[in-house]
Amino acid sequence: QPVKMDKPQIITHLEKGMNHTLYDCKWIPRSARFVTLGSHPRGTGAINVFEINQRELQLVKECETPTSFKCGTFAASSLQARNLATGDFKGKLSVWDLENMKSTFDVDAHSEIINAIDGVGGLGIGEGAPELVTGSRDGAVKVWDVRQKDAPVACMVPEEGEGKRDCWSVAFGDAYNSEERCVCAGYDNGDVKMFDLRTMSLKWETNVKNGVCCVEFDRKDIPKNKLVVSSLEGKFKVFDVRTQHPKSGFASLSENAHKSTVWLVRHLPQNRDLFMTTGGSGSLSLWKYEYPPKRVKEEDGVSKGVIGSLQYLQNSTISTQPVCGLDWSPDKLGLCVTVSFDQALRVLIVTKLNRV
Amino acid sequence: MAATLFNGTSNSSNDITIDMLDYQYIDNCSNIKELEKILRALRSGKDGYYPHLISHCEDKVRGMNPTSKALRKLNPITRTKDLPADEAEVITNGIGEWKNEIHSNASDDQVNGCNIPPVRQTTTLKAGTKSTVTNPSSKSQRIRSYDYKAWDKFDADKECENAEKQPQEKPRTTPTSKIHRNKKMSDKVDATGLSEYEMLVRATSEKDKGNEAFKSADFEAALTYYSRSISLSRTAASINNRALAYIRLQRWKEAESDCNEVLQLEPDNLKARLRRATARKELLKYIEAKNDLSFVLDKEPHNTRASKILEEVEQNLSKSSSGDASQSSRTGRKMMIAEVSSDEEETDPPTANHCEIKEKDVPDTVQSEVAPISATVNGDDTEKVSKDDKVGPGDVETTFAAEEPHVEQPPPEMPQSVLKIKNSGKELFLSGQYADAAQLYTKALNTLQACADKSPDLDHSCNIALLYNNRAACHLKVGDDKACIADCNEVLILKGMDTKALIRRAYAFEHMEKYQQAYLDFRSAQTVDWSIKQAQDGANRVASHLRDIHGPKWKSVLTGDRMIVTQHQKTTNSNQEEADREKKKEEIRRNLFDSLKNNGNTEVKKGNFEKAVECYTKSMNICPDEIASYTNRALCYLKLNKPVSAIEDCTEAIKRDPKNIKAMFRRAQANKNLKKYKQALDDLNKVLQLEPENKSAHAELMVSKDAAKKEKKRKIIIEDADSDEEAVNISENNGKEDTGKEEVQSKLENIKPTVELEEFGNAWNAVQPKHAVSTYKMILDRVPVKNIPELVTNKTTDHMIVTFAKIARYHLIAGVKEEVDRAYGILSSLSLAQRFNMAAMFLSKPDKKHVSAAIDDLEAALDTGSFTKADVENLRVTYML
């Protein structure tokens, strides 16, 4: 069987088993270190910092906190400070100085677990002020500015009398100048809502039928371009969010993958048209979006988006359990770290991404 | 099975019957859906396992629809250790190199004053499943929400269409539509408060975005992103890409001027030439376009695109001369589009072509530019390089020609008989019959030797070397490592630093597990030509073997690069040959020197002074008598604020050429920085004697004179203060900052030797820029050594340690006992400060270099100071060096 050698390969470079549950992992920008967030069996939180050496992983720092962590991000921190923002099981949002393992900002952001967090304006990505967004089981999506401690700067809550929906995923996008910014949120009932933070309005909503596990824009700091929404039952959708038609909304395509929940979608920071999806059966799939010859067509004088196609580049089953955390290194093309429910963390290398 | 036979359907799927699971049926089936179902049924294994039938069916499906989802297979985990050894090595080394690089990049750039927009006003949006923004009277919820969006965008149309909805929604949307929406992105990135590294990261990411936009055919956006990238860092690659974006947008003028700029930076950039030709053709500048095209065709005679455009241009030229201009421009455009669409996007900076213009020296006004994308972001190292493919003898001739383009006399042609044998050898080699090829090469060698003996006036050494080199390749392939090494040795004796031979010998050594020699050979090949990937990979691979064998100190077992490099200097019989070889060596050295110097010059232009210093140092080792290296390195040292080293270099240069103006001028600058105004003035006067019109020297002279005067004045004032303890009036001084500082300084030196804790902290933090060591020194000068730990308190940072080390070096320059002792005192008492150990632990590599340099200097000054060698060693330990 001829093997195509120009295809990217997903190679598991380093593996390490832990004695606690891991939920999220993030590269510390400008370093060969990453941080994992999780929960000890007794319900306490775990922050661990690892450094990669050529042939091994080295635990550099560890810290146990009172409450388990669910998610974290560096995206609202400066490149110098590299402070980690975390969301925990009791709804607390904290910002950590990893050097001293001390929190510099704490707020009881939500009444229940913070399922997802995202940031913008830090690390040189996104114009405007650094902000964080959190999505929680209490149904609210809140935007935070670490300069304002007591209250969120924007809050998207369900209307009174409405049933609360569990918000599973949030993402920033559209931050291409200092005014524009939008937040996209995905809920357990399949709702996807896009909020415009400048006008504080609901810009778009849809329902993808199954619970939305992950939403992500292909880039945060450009006029919104593509949005990928992954859901239960092994489906994900790609929306071309450049052109919105007054009736049919955004053009989209839907793809089956993993035959189980698609937990995550992570775009390559160096190329917005490549992304990885992670599956509930421990599999990873690498995709490439290809644009159609013309992205916009005129229909009765109104422009309508045209969706392109997806190319299935590679896959690899790295675990028997869901892969719940994946982060591409912003500094080294193709390097990424994953955590999965088998309590293992893995450093992967995806080769030949620059030739795709 | 019985059940299946009865109802005729397979176990796995109702649509698939047993008789479909058959070679013939699959061959004849033209329904892709059905084939996919058959494949799934086969794979499920419920009707048995038929590996050949499965792969047959896969092939059939692939033939009909290569992207069929049925062909997707789940791959198991691939670990690095499962890969072939060389691929695993490439990955492991790639990670290791990247880690080192990123570690050294994480230096202490401190950034102040970012302008962050104010905190957003707190707002709440209530948006449940029934969003408040939607109109409750609408029939369908889905349309409602879209209507809102339609409101936002298509206000006018909607006003007519949805007349009855209007009154309700209008109040909501008016504010949105009234505020002017700043949809545009600025062409520039606000770089205030960005560190150099951040600028680089931003520039790279903007360029990436440009490439992405370009790929999605959004040329306007691509243009904006490229411009943003260029505003942060003017690299040829970004400008070249922007030129292409301009061409796509048919903005020919801008495209041309961008190409001009690229060609100024990289005169041999063929892509830029071609793009300029395209633009010029559209601007009807046919003659210039033709010039560009013939330049391209000169370098790449087979460039079809260039010849195509040239044809067009020539047609247009003849047509326009006959007066049919309108016709010509139309056909021209058609062709142009065809050309551009085949043009590919440049995602990486093109590999540097060697410069045409050889600068004798770097100009004094060097633009400090940010380097193009660092290798960190490129990730090229993931690619695998097959180690043998490139060593075939077929390409030896081209290398041969490329390596010695400056040989005055071209080597004589091979005699026909030899050439014939050689060519058949080459054919055999290409077909894989290496042993036979080796035999033929031996034969060719013998014949050529005989010819050479017959006509001794022709120098066949180059040809002989070529044959030896080819035979070495054969031996390497066959696995006869010893013979290969012997042949390579011959080549190296005849031709000096031949990279192919070096690499082949390195491979042979590697096969024989003589890793030291292999490493040295790879390294030597690298010194000749940095761009050889085989040499790089080989060196890395062998280095890791050596590390495994000898542990971390493996480098000490190497006997030195020089040995191998100079091995080809073996004595030979004939004096004539010796002289020839010397000449050739000289030429090679010359080329090497030129390329190193040019590398240095480019680094200077990019602002990487440290790297430039490395290049110049290497070039100095090769040609110790070249003055340019010294003056250039001095310039770098000046930029790096190392005036003492700069002075040394200048003095060396002046020793070799007593009238070198640049050296004198730079020495003057360095002396000025060290406040040795007298020496500076001496040098400047000399410069002006030699070149009375030199404007910068005049300017510098004025500055130095002023500074010297001030210095004198300050000394006098301080003396005054000694006798009279009143506040000192230095109002005559012009520089406001200086006045303040000097006032403080003189006051404190004489009145209040100790500084309050808070004052010290404030003064220290207020210093701008953060590398102004002299300013820091002024602050520290006021502090008695024993007070340092309590003043520093727990604020010790790596930046502080480095600054202290630099200050200590300043003290050491004077060479006086008190100063030397103070230098030691500063370093030793800083180590007593709180948090010192923590900060020292996190020193980056360049930082450590500074500190260890300071301690080295201390050690050198042992005689003058009142501390012992043990003290210095202790320091080294406390600073974790």
TrEMBL record, chain A:
Q: Which GO terms describe its cellular component?
A: spindle pole
- Keywords of this protein's UniProt record, alphabetized? Apoptosis, Cytoplasm, Repeat, WD repeat
Where does the record say this protein resides? Cytoplasm, Cytoskeleton, Spindle pole
Provide the primary localization. cytoplasm
- Transmembrane regions: none
Q: Does the keyword NAD apply?
A: no
Q: Where are the WD repeats?
A: 132-154
Q: Is Transmembrane included in the keywords of this UniProt record?
A: no
What Pfam families would the database entry show? Answer: WD40
One of its GO biological process terms is:
apoptotic process
PROSITE patterns referenced in this protein's UniProt entry, alphabetically: WD_REPEATS_1, WD_REPEATS_2
Q: Which domain of life is it from?
A: Eukaryota
Q: Which GO terms describe its molecular function?
A: ubiquitin binding
Sum up the protein's function in the record's words: Key assembly factor specifically required for the stability of axonemal dynein heavy chains in cytoplasm.
What protein family is recorded? Belongs to the WD repeat rae1 family.
- Protein name, please? Dynein axonemal assembly factor 10
The organism encoding this protein is: Ciona intestinalis
Automatic annotation (TrEMBL), chain B:
GO cellular component terms listed in the entry, alphabetical order: cytoplasm
Pfam families, per database record: RPAP3_C, TPR_1, TPR_2, TPR_8
List locations, semicolon-separated: Cytoplasm
What are the ranges of the TPR repeats?
236-269, 593-626, 627-660, 661-694
- Using the UniProt annotation, give all residue ranges assigned to the region (Disordered): 160-184, 312-369
The answer on whether this UniProt entry bears the keyword Repeat reads yes
UniProt protein name = RNA-polymerase II-associated protein 3-like C-terminal domain-containing protein
Q: What organism is listed for this UniProt entry?
A: Ciona intestinalis
